[in-house]
Protein backbone atom coordinates (compact mmCIF):
# COMPACT_ATOMS: atom_id res chain seq x y z
CA UNK A 1 0.00 0.00 0.00
CA UNK A 2 1.19 3.53 -0.74
CA UNK A 3 2.37 5.69 2.13
CA UNK A 4 1.02 9.12 2.99
CA UNK A 5 3.31 12.10 3.53
CA UNK A 6 2.19 15.34 5.17
CA UNK A 7 4.38 18.30 4.17
CA UNK A 8 4.14 21.52 6.16
CA UNK A 9 5.45 24.30 3.93
CA UNK A 10 4.55 22.48 0.73
CA UNK A 11 4.40 25.65 -1.39
CA UNK A 12 8.03 26.62 -0.74
CA UNK A 13 11.13 25.55 -2.65
CA UNK A 14 11.83 22.46 -0.55
CA UNK A 15 8.18 21.52 -0.24
CA UNK A 16 7.72 21.55 -4.00
CA UNK A 17 10.83 19.49 -4.72
CA UNK A 18 10.01 17.04 -1.93
CA UNK A 19 6.47 16.63 -3.28
CA UNK A 20 7.90 15.85 -6.72
CA UNK A 21 10.24 13.25 -5.23
CA UNK A 22 7.57 11.54 -3.11
CA UNK A 23 4.93 11.49 -5.84
CA UNK A 24 7.50 9.74 -8.02
CA UNK A 25 7.86 7.11 -5.31
CA UNK A 26 4.11 6.49 -5.20
CA UNK A 27 3.27 8.46 -2.07
CA UNK A 28 0.00 10.19 -1.41
CA UNK A 29 1.17 13.76 -0.74
CA UNK A 30 -0.82 16.15 1.42
CA UNK A 31 0.57 19.64 1.84
CA UNK A 32 -0.44 22.42 4.18
CA UNK A 33 -0.87 26.16 3.91
CA UNK A 34 -2.32 28.62 6.40
CA UNK A 35 -5.16 29.15 3.91
CA UNK A 36 -5.48 26.36 1.36
CA UNK A 37 -7.74 28.41 -0.90
CA UNK A 38 -5.26 31.31 -1.07
CA UNK A 39 -2.07 29.22 -1.27
CA UNK A 40 0.56 30.25 -3.80
CA UNK A 41 1.03 27.01 -5.72
CA UNK A 42 3.25 28.46 -8.46
CA UNK A 43 6.23 26.27 -7.54
CA UNK A 44 4.14 23.12 -7.62
CA UNK A 45 2.81 24.24 -10.98
CA UNK A 46 6.32 24.85 -12.35
CA UNK A 47 7.20 21.28 -11.45
CA UNK A 48 3.98 20.01 -13.07
CA UNK A 49 2.67 18.35 -9.92
CA UNK A 50 -0.06 20.68 -8.63
CA UNK A 51 -2.83 18.19 -9.46
CA UNK A 52 -1.08 15.46 -7.51
CA UNK A 53 -0.79 17.36 -4.22
CA UNK A 54 -3.72 17.73 -1.84
CA UNK A 55 -3.56 21.03 0.06
CA UNK A 56 -5.28 21.58 3.40
CA UNK A 57 -5.38 24.56 5.75
CA UNK A 58 -3.18 24.37 8.84
CA UNK A 59 -1.85 27.00 11.25
CA UNK A 60 1.32 25.52 12.82
CA UNK A 61 1.11 27.74 15.92
CA UNK A 62 -2.49 26.61 16.64
CA UNK A 63 -2.49 23.27 18.48
CA UNK A 64 -6.09 22.48 17.58
CA UNK A 65 -5.40 23.09 13.89
CA UNK A 66 -2.37 20.79 13.92
CA UNK A 67 -4.28 18.09 15.82
CA UNK A 68 -7.21 18.21 13.38
CA UNK A 69 -5.04 17.87 10.28
CA UNK A 70 -2.65 15.21 11.58
CA UNK A 71 -5.46 13.04 12.94
CA UNK A 72 -7.50 13.51 9.76
CA UNK A 73 -4.71 12.83 7.26
CA UNK A 74 -3.13 10.01 9.34
CA UNK A 75 0.28 10.36 7.65
CA UNK A 76 3.09 7.83 7.77
CA UNK A 77 5.65 10.61 7.45
CA UNK A 78 5.57 14.29 8.35
CA UNK A 79 8.04 16.81 6.91
CA UNK A 80 8.14 20.05 8.88
CA UNK A 81 9.41 22.64 6.40
CA UNK A 82 7.12 25.45 7.56
CA UNK A 83 7.93 28.67 9.38
CA UNK A 84 9.82 31.83 8.59
CA UNK A 85 12.70 31.10 6.21
CA UNK A 86 14.65 34.37 5.99
CA UNK A 87 17.54 35.25 8.30
CA UNK A 88 17.24 38.92 7.36
CA UNK A 89 13.49 39.03 7.98
CA UNK A 90 13.92 37.40 11.38
CA UNK A 91 15.59 40.58 12.68
CA UNK A 92 12.49 42.54 11.71
CA UNK A 93 9.97 39.95 12.94
CA UNK A 94 11.69 38.00 15.75
CA UNK A 95 8.50 37.07 17.63
CA UNK A 96 6.78 35.70 14.53
CA UNK A 97 9.99 33.86 13.71
CA UNK A 98 10.11 32.09 17.08
CA UNK A 99 6.40 31.30 17.08
CA UNK A 100 6.31 29.94 13.52
CA UNK A 101 9.44 27.79 13.87
CA UNK A 102 9.76 26.74 17.51
CA UNK A 103 6.05 27.00 18.38
CA UNK A 104 4.98 25.12 15.26
CA UNK A 105 7.52 22.35 15.85
CA UNK A 106 6.43 21.92 19.46
CA UNK A 107 2.78 21.63 18.43
CA UNK A 108 3.66 18.91 15.92
CA UNK A 109 5.65 16.95 18.46
CA UNK A 110 2.94 17.20 21.10
CA UNK A 111 0.22 16.14 18.64
CA UNK A 112 2.24 13.08 17.60
CA UNK A 113 2.83 12.19 21.24
CA UNK A 114 -0.84 12.74 22.13
CA UNK A 115 -2.14 10.61 19.25
CA UNK A 116 0.38 7.85 19.83
CA UNK A 117 0.56 7.38 16.08
CA UNK A 118 3.51 5.51 14.47
CA UNK A 119 4.41 8.55 12.38
CA UNK A 120 7.95 9.56 11.44
CA UNK A 121 8.85 13.25 11.66
CA UNK A 122 11.52 15.13 9.74
CA UNK A 123 12.27 18.61 11.03
CA UNK A 124 14.13 21.12 8.87
CA UNK A 125 17.00 22.60 10.88
CA UNK A 126 19.65 25.08 9.79
CA UNK A 127 23.43 25.31 9.70
CA UNK A 128 22.92 28.93 10.83
CA UNK A 129 22.63 27.46 14.34
CA UNK A 130 26.39 26.85 14.43
CA UNK A 131 27.21 30.53 13.98
CA UNK A 132 30.78 31.26 12.93
CA UNK A 133 32.64 27.97 12.54
CA UNK A 134 36.03 29.49 11.73
CA UNK A 135 38.24 27.10 9.78
CA UNK A 136 37.01 24.08 11.74
CA UNK A 137 34.09 22.45 9.87
CA UNK A 138 30.95 21.95 11.94
CA UNK A 139 29.56 18.46 12.35
CA UNK A 140 26.68 16.88 14.30
CA UNK A 141 28.58 17.25 17.58
CA UNK A 142 29.52 20.92 17.17
CA UNK A 143 27.98 23.39 19.64
CA UNK A 144 25.32 25.86 18.53
CA UNK A 145 26.20 29.56 18.67
CA UNK A 146 23.25 31.20 16.87
CA UNK A 147 23.67 34.80 15.73
CA UNK A 148 20.18 35.67 14.47
CA UNK A 149 16.58 35.28 15.69
CA UNK A 150 16.13 32.73 12.89
CA UNK A 151 19.06 30.64 14.12
CA UNK A 152 17.87 30.88 17.73
CA UNK A 153 14.41 29.62 16.69
CA UNK A 154 15.90 26.75 14.66
CA UNK A 155 18.17 25.78 17.56
CA UNK A 156 15.16 25.75 19.89
CA UNK A 157 13.23 23.49 17.50
CA UNK A 158 16.24 21.18 17.19
CA UNK A 159 16.38 20.59 20.94
CA UNK A 160 12.61 20.15 21.13
CA UNK A 161 12.84 17.34 18.60
CA UNK A 162 15.77 15.74 20.44
CA UNK A 163 13.90 15.97 23.73
CA UNK A 164 10.72 14.33 22.44
CA UNK A 165 12.75 11.60 20.73
CA UNK A 166 14.54 10.76 23.98
CA UNK A 167 11.68 11.31 26.41
CA UNK A 168 8.82 9.68 24.47
CA UNK A 169 10.53 7.42 21.94
CA UNK A 170 9.23 9.28 18.90
CA UNK A 171 10.77 8.69 15.50
CA UNK A 172 11.71 12.34 15.11
CA UNK A 173 14.89 13.78 13.65
CA UNK A 174 16.32 17.05 12.39
CA UNK A 175 18.21 17.58 9.18
CA UNK A 176 20.60 20.47 9.80
CA UNK A 177 20.45 22.04 6.36
CA UNK A 178 23.17 24.22 4.87
CA UNK A 179 22.18 26.78 2.22
CA UNK A 180 20.59 25.09 -0.78
CA UNK A 181 19.41 26.81 -3.91
CA UNK A 182 17.39 26.39 -7.12
CA UNK A 183 15.37 28.46 -9.59
CA UNK A 184 12.44 28.10 -7.18
CA UNK A 185 14.11 30.38 -4.61
CA UNK A 186 12.26 33.70 -4.08
CA UNK A 187 14.24 36.88 -4.77
CA UNK A 188 14.50 37.85 -1.11
CA UNK A 189 17.25 35.21 -0.90
CA UNK A 190 20.61 36.69 -1.84
CA UNK A 191 21.49 33.97 -4.37
CA UNK A 192 18.35 34.58 -6.41
CA UNK A 193 18.73 38.34 -6.00
CA UNK A 194 22.22 38.07 -7.50
CA UNK A 195 21.19 35.77 -10.36
CA UNK A 196 18.21 37.90 -11.37
CA UNK A 197 20.11 41.18 -10.86
CA UNK A 198 22.99 40.04 -13.05
CA UNK A 199 20.57 38.88 -15.76
CA UNK A 200 18.83 42.28 -15.66
CA UNK A 201 22.18 44.05 -16.06
CA UNK A 202 23.12 41.82 -19.00
CA UNK A 203 19.76 42.60 -20.62
CA UNK A 204 20.25 46.36 -20.11
CA UNK A 205 17.41 46.67 -17.62
CA UNK A 206 19.56 47.98 -14.74
CA UNK A 207 23.04 49.39 -14.24
CA UNK A 208 24.27 48.06 -10.90
CA UNK A 209 23.63 45.31 -8.36
CA UNK A 210 23.60 46.58 -4.78
CA UNK A 211 24.55 44.08 -2.07
CA UNK A 212 25.57 44.03 1.59
CA UNK A 213 28.56 42.12 2.95
CA UNK A 214 30.36 40.19 0.20
CA UNK A 215 33.00 38.79 2.55
CA UNK A 216 30.90 36.00 4.00
CA UNK A 217 31.50 32.31 3.36
CA UNK A 218 28.78 29.67 3.08
CA UNK A 219 28.19 26.10 1.99
CA UNK A 220 25.81 26.26 -0.99
CA UNK A 221 24.11 23.15 -2.38
CA UNK A 222 21.45 22.09 -4.88
CA UNK A 223 17.92 21.88 -3.40
CA UNK A 224 16.62 18.86 -5.41
CA UNK A 225 19.44 16.78 -3.88
CA UNK A 226 18.74 17.97 -0.36
CA UNK A 227 15.14 16.75 -0.32
CA UNK A 228 16.46 13.29 -1.17
CA UNK A 229 18.43 13.43 2.09
CA UNK A 230 15.25 14.36 3.99
CA UNK A 231 13.46 11.29 2.65
CA UNK A 232 16.40 8.98 3.35
CA UNK A 233 16.53 10.10 6.98
CA UNK A 234 12.98 8.85 7.53
CA UNK A 235 13.76 5.46 5.97
CA UNK A 236 16.45 4.67 8.53
CA UNK A 237 16.02 2.00 11.18
CA UNK A 238 16.49 4.53 13.97
CA UNK A 239 15.98 8.31 14.07
CA UNK A 240 19.16 10.36 13.99
CA UNK A 241 20.02 13.99 13.35
CA UNK A 242 22.27 14.69 10.36
CA UNK A 243 24.03 17.63 8.80
CA UNK A 244 22.93 18.03 5.17
CA UNK A 245 25.55 20.00 3.24
CA UNK A 246 27.92 19.84 0.28
CA UNK A 247 31.10 20.09 2.34
CA UNK A 248 32.37 22.89 0.08
CA UNK A 249 32.59 26.51 1.23
CA UNK A 250 32.67 29.56 -1.04
CA UNK A 251 32.51 33.29 -0.44
CA UNK A 252 29.60 35.42 -1.57
CA UNK A 253 32.16 37.36 -3.61
CA UNK A 254 32.98 34.14 -5.49
CA UNK A 255 29.29 33.48 -6.06
CA UNK A 256 28.83 36.97 -7.52
CA UNK A 257 31.86 36.49 -9.77
CA UNK A 258 30.49 33.14 -11.00
CA UNK A 259 27.09 34.69 -11.75
CA UNK A 260 28.74 37.52 -13.69
CA UNK A 261 30.89 35.09 -15.70
CA UNK A 262 27.79 33.17 -16.77
CA UNK A 263 26.22 36.45 -17.95
CA UNK A 264 29.41 37.69 -19.64
CA UNK A 265 29.95 40.55 -17.17
CA UNK A 266 32.84 41.77 -15.02
CA UNK A 267 31.77 41.74 -11.39
CA UNK A 268 34.01 44.62 -10.27
CA UNK A 269 32.26 46.98 -12.71
CA UNK A 270 28.70 46.14 -11.72
CA UNK A 271 28.58 45.51 -7.96
CA UNK A 272 28.08 48.14 -5.26
CA UNK A 273 28.22 47.59 -1.49
CA UNK A 274 25.62 49.26 0.74
CA UNK A 275 25.94 49.55 4.52
CA UNK A 276 22.17 49.75 4.85
CA UNK A 277 21.91 46.10 3.77
CA UNK A 278 24.14 44.80 6.55
CA UNK A 279 22.46 42.73 9.27
CA UNK A 280 22.75 43.64 12.98
CA UNK A 281 24.84 40.48 13.42
CA UNK A 282 26.06 38.07 10.79
CA UNK A 283 28.31 35.06 10.69
CA UNK A 284 31.40 35.45 8.55
CA UNK A 285 32.60 31.91 7.94
CA UNK A 286 30.46 28.80 7.81
CA UNK A 287 32.03 25.45 6.93
CA UNK A 288 30.30 22.05 7.16
CA UNK A 289 31.38 18.41 7.46
CA UNK A 290 28.57 16.19 6.09
CA UNK A 291 30.44 12.88 6.18
CA UNK A 292 28.13 11.23 8.73
CA UNK A 293 25.04 11.24 6.50
CA UNK A 294 27.12 9.73 3.67
CA UNK A 295 28.31 6.98 6.00
CA UNK A 296 24.90 6.21 7.51
CA UNK A 297 22.46 7.02 4.67
CA UNK A 298 24.59 6.90 1.54
CA UNK A 299 23.73 10.50 0.61
CA UNK A 300 26.28 12.91 -0.88
CA UNK A 301 25.92 16.22 -2.69
CA UNK A 302 27.05 16.12 -6.32
CA UNK A 303 26.56 19.71 -7.57
CA UNK A 304 29.24 22.38 -7.23
CA UNK A 305 28.68 26.13 -7.02
CA UNK A 306 29.44 26.85 -10.69
CA UNK A 307 26.91 24.25 -11.83
CA UNK A 308 24.27 25.57 -9.42
CA UNK A 309 24.74 29.13 -10.67
CA UNK A 310 24.49 27.99 -14.30
CA UNK A 311 21.28 26.03 -13.61
CA UNK A 312 19.71 28.97 -11.76
CA UNK A 313 20.70 31.40 -14.52
CA UNK A 314 19.07 29.21 -17.16
CA UNK A 315 16.08 28.24 -15.03
CA UNK A 316 16.93 24.52 -15.08
CA UNK A 317 14.79 22.93 -12.37
CA UNK A 318 16.56 19.56 -11.99
How would you sum up this structure, described in words?
There is one protein chain. The chain is of the alpha/beta class. It has a domain at 4-181 and 222-247 and 287-302: NAD(P)-binding Rossmann-like Domain (Rossmann fold). The protein has twelve helices and 13 strands. It has a seven-stranded parallel sheet, sandwiched between helices. It has a two-stranded parallel ribbon with strand order 7-10. Helix 1 packs across helix 8 (223-233), helix 5 (94-115) runs parallel beside helix 6 (149-168) and helix 7 packs parallel to helix 9. The chain is globular. The mean pLDDT is 95.
Q: Report the CATH topology name of the domain at 4-181 and 222-247 and 287-302.
A: Rossmann fold
Largest sheet: 7 strands, parallel
| Spatial extent as radius of gyration | 19 Å
Look at the structure and name the CATH superfamily of the domain at 4-181 and 222-247 and 287-302: NAD(P)-binding Rossmann-like Domain
What is the general shape? globular
Helical coverage, percent range: 40-55%
Helix-strand pattern, N to C?
Answer: EHEHEHEHHEHEEHEEEHEEHHEHH
What is the CATH C-level name of the domain at 4-181 and 222-247 and 287-302? Alpha Beta
Could you tell me the mean pLDDT? 95
Counted by DSSP, the helix tally is 12
CATH architecture of the domain at 4-181 and 222-247 and 287-302, by name, is: 3-Layer(aba) Sandwich
Amino acid sequence: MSRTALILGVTGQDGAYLSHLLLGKGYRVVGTSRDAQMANTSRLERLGIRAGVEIVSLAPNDFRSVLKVVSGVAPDEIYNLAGQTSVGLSFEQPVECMESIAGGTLNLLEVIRYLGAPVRLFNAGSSECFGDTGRTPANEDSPFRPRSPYAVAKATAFWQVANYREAYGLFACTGILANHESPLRPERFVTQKIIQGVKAIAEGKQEKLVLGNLDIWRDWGWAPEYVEAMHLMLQAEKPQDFLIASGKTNSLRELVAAACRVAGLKAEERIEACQDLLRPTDLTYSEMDPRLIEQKCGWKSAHGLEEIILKMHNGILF
